[in-house]
Amino acid sequence: MDIGHKLRTIRKQRGLSQRELAARAGLTNGTISLIEKNRTSPSVASLKSLLDAIPISMAEFFSTLEESQAPKVFYKAEEFTEIAPVSEGQVSLRQLGNAEHHALQVLHETYPAGADTGPELLSHNGEEAGIVVRGSIEVTVDGNVAVLNVGDGYLFDSRLPHRFRNLDDAVCVIVSACTPPSF
To answer: What was the pLDDT predicted at 65?
Structure first.
């Protein structure tokens, strides 16, 4: 997916200049320009800040329409929607279905060695929960820090500032859910 082009298109549709979007999101105009030209990939937290400033949810930004008349029930792995910028060494957040049509958002999260959601803490409406299915992850929620291993999980109010970091040398995989879909 061409994240830069999509961001630029949505920004222009909403009548926002790069400077205005940068000011709303707490980023520099230069950063917006680099992202829109696909010369840099934003962290998950930076992209969330940008989309919140537009405003548009990550689910809507990355959504693929469920076009069939009957609701889609089953999804192959390749049908998941990537809702985080994908580049070498960055977090991958793959969404099951189109969260815009459901009350629950389910993600397959992959954190390569050393990857994290970014230095800015995330915060959004809802609750989220997850279970580590491979590797380990450091989770920070409202100043509390824990390292979770395979089989461990988390459940918290997503309005609390939070961050995920893989401090290990191995890939970490988490299956998570958020309600309502807001990420």
So the answer is: 41
